[in-house]
Structure formats: structure tokens, C-alpha cells
Amino acid sequence: MSEDNKLDKHDEEEFNLYTENIVIKKSVKYRKVIHFGKLMLEAIVFGSVACFAFTALYPWMSNQLSLGDNKIIISIPKDEYPDGIEESSTQDLLTLDSETSTKNFQNTFQLLSETMVDTKKSIVTITAIYNETTEFLNENKSDGDTSGLIIAMSDNKFTILTSYSVMKNARSISVLFNNGNVMSAYLSSADVDTGIAVICVNLSEESVIDRANISVAKLDNSYLIDQGDIVFAAGKLLGNTASVNYGTSINVKISKSGIDSYYNLISTNMQQKSGDYAFLFNADGNVIGITKNDSVDNPNAEVIAYGISDLKPLIEKMSNNEEITYLGITGESVTNTKAATYNLPMGVYITEIAEGSPALLSGLMNGDIITTINGQAVYTFKSLCDSIYKYKSGDTIIIELKRKLGKDDYKIFSFNVTLGKK
User: Fold this and answer.
1) What residue intervals traverse the membrane (predicted)?
2) What would the pLDDT profile of 33-92 be if each residue is shown by its tens digit?
3) Helix H or strand E segment including 116
4) Is residue 310 located within the same domain as residue 335?
């Protein structure tokens, strides 16, 4: 073979080496497709999980981070139970002695009259519509007129205390303010034991209301009220809404106990009738009580009010639409005298336990004497009630008590009690 032929053959082999077709095996091709598919599937799953998690957690995140509308929390300062109290300076000015001149007497009551007029700015008239159609006329029967007290005011809402017995069956509620404005309201929360309800008036951007003659009531310390102090009531009195009357406190040493509740009462020499609902003020024009919403059969019945200081924890929870904590006991304080007379340990004697209550389900019994709650000593039923209000429903507390096992033999027991809600 000639040299030329050898070179041609070599070039042909060299060319064929670099131009041969590379065929990918099917197994390799499918493996890449499957790998790509897995990546896409994982991306879809991850995205779906992230989307679901965000959707599920958004309400909680919104609440924690205060996204959207900011909720305004109403806080009411609490009062210390009387233990060496000082008298109100304003009340001292209104205490008249025999040397008080007629002119000073007139000036005093002129100031009181001006104060009474000023407090009406915080009083509203409320009408509840029940949508009851009369037998002969196709008209709405609206016989639910009562009074209310403004306790909080913001740019977009009014918070008002009123009578639950009037509000509970209402289909619609309207509020007449002191300046003449009428606005719709809704029932926010209620307490059956005291008969107190909280209603709210929401204000939209389009709402137009004159705030010049509207004010928020100041809740004062009712523990400072003494027998003979000048007081006045504003609200629904003797069947008339938007009424005002004055008098004196005649008894401040009475109280009322209920389930998880203890209230001091203020009785006055003013009169009331069935269906009345008013608010009690001191000489400074500050709220010291809310009249009891009991049915009154006696036309000459005296105005009796719950002291506002004992109601403040309840009102604060209701105003913020929080659940009212529930233990379920009625009790009596074991005073030094009772302890010595009946040979009892100091604490709170359980007189009654509500059926199905957390107290009953946890093993507490009538006759037990509660001595501590979460390590804090309790000596009065009022202090026990105040302690319960500090917790929320679902919280577990440790109640230590003494239970009588023999004639004079008391043994210490400890119970874990999970609080409920009313």
C-alpha cells in the first residue's frame, strides 16, 4: 500500500473518532427527569405548607403584633379596702355646722347643683327595642327605657354601663347622649349577679357627633363614703329617665355576698321604684355606686347602690370583653371573734358550693376553711374574691384549706383547681 493511501485511511479514522454519535442510555435520561420532578414536587409541598401555616397562624400573629385595628384596653385603677382612710376634703367643705351662715349654705348647694348638672354629661338615655308587635297595631313596642353611664370614650367607640334586665332581650339598642345625638349600640357583655351590662357605640369615619357636652365619668373610691355624707343620684329615678336627686348616705356598713362575689352597699334617704336604674355620685361629682337592679315593690323604697370600688375588677373585665373567672363558692370571713367563739381556724369558711362548679369538681366541701391561694394568705371572703378576679378561666390555682375531721381536729389539704368562666 502506498504512503498516500495510508494517510487517507488514517485521516478517515481520525475524523470518524470525533464525529461519532453519543447515545444516552434511557435509564440515565429518566433518572434526570425523575430528579427534576422530585425538586418540583418538593417546592410545591413546601410552598403549600408555608401558605397553610401562614393562613392558620395569621389571626394569632395579628393579635400578638397588633396588626390591623388596635384594640384599646380599658384599665380601671383599684381601691384599697378601708384601713385607716382619710376623709375627702370636698366632703369636709360640705359638712355644715351650726355657725354656717345662710349665704354659705346657699353657696354650698349652688356648687352642688352645678356639679349635678355637670355629671349629666356622662349620663345617657337608652332605649331597647324588643320588636314585639301589638295585637291590633303593627307597631314596635319599645318599653325598655333606662339610663347608662359613659365609662370610656375613644375616637371610634363609647363604652357604657347600663341595666342588663333591660338589654338582655333587645333586638336593637339606641343611645341618646346629653348633646341630643342618637346612635345605635350593641350589647357587649353582662353579669347576671349584679345586673350590670356593658354596651358599646361604634363610631365610623362618617359618624358625626358633638363631644362638647359629653364626658367620661370618673369612678371614685366608695370606701371613703361615711354615714351622713352628701350624695346624689343621676339616671332613671321614680320612673323618669335623665333625672337627678340628692340626699345623704344613711348606712354604709351593709354588704351582699354571692358566688365568688362580695359587695359593700350604700343606702341613702332617696326613694326609688321598680324599674329604676341610676348611678350614685359623691359631692365631687364622681361615681361611687350603681343602684341595685332588684324589683322594688315598695313605692317608698330607699335607693341602695353597690359600692363602685367592689365593682371595678368586674367592670374592667366586662369592658374589655374578657371572661369572668369562676370558682363557684359562697363564703364567710372567719374573724378573730368568730375564731375564738367557735374554735375555728382563720380564713374563709365555705358556706355553699355551686353545683358543677370548679370548686366542687376539684373536691372542695362545705365547711372547709380556705387559708391560702397560690401561697397567699386569705383572711376575708372579699380578699378571696379579689384574688380570683386576678386569674383567667383555664388557669390552675393551688388552694390550701383546713378540713374538720374530728370534734376539734382540722387537717390541712391542698387542691389544684382549674378555674372556669361564668
Assistant:
1) 39-61
2) 555 556 666 656 555 555 555 444 444 444 444 334 456 788 888 888 765 433 343 444
3) helix 102-119
4) no
Residues 215 and 121: beta-carbon distance below 8 Å: yes
Q: How far apart are the first and last CA of the chain?
A: 114
**Whether residue 257 is found in the same domain as residue 181:** no
Q: Which of 384, 321, 328 is nearest to 354 (CA)?
A: 328
pTM of the model: 0.75
Number of domains the chain is built from: 3
| Residue-averaged pLDDT of the chain | 82
Does any domain span residue 162? yes
Any domain includes 44: no
- The residue among 385, 348, 342 whose CA lies nearest residue 369 is 348
Which of residues 170, 193, 213 is at a domain's end? 213
Higher pLDDT among residues 204 and 278, named by residue: 278
pLDDT for the residue numbered 87 = 39
Range of the domain at 200: 121-133+141-213
d(CA 112, CA 244): 12
| Residue whose cell numbers read 410552598 | 47
In a domain, 176, yes or no: yes
Span 112-121, average pLDDT: 88
Q: Taking a C-beta distance cutoff of 8 angstroms, is the pair 368, 331 a contact?
A: no
Q: Which three cell numbers stand for residue 66?
A: 397588633
C-alpha of 323 from chain center: 7
Burial class of residue 197 in the structure, from the number of CB atoms within 10 Å of its CB (0-12 exposed, 13-18 middle, 19+ buried):
buried
Q: Distance between alpha carbon 273 and the CA centroid of its chain, in Å?
A: 29
The C-alpha angle 347, 353, 358, rounded to 5 degrees, equals 95
Contacts of 183 (CB under 8 A, 6+ apart): 174, 175, 177, 201, 203, 207, 209
What is the CATH classification number for the domain harbouring 158?
2.40.10.10
Percentages helix, strand, coil for the chain (3-state, rounded to 5) are 30, 35, 35
Residue 25 has pLDDT above 80, yes or no: no
The pairing of strands 230-237 and 172-176 is unpaired
pLDDT greater than 50 at residue 394: yes
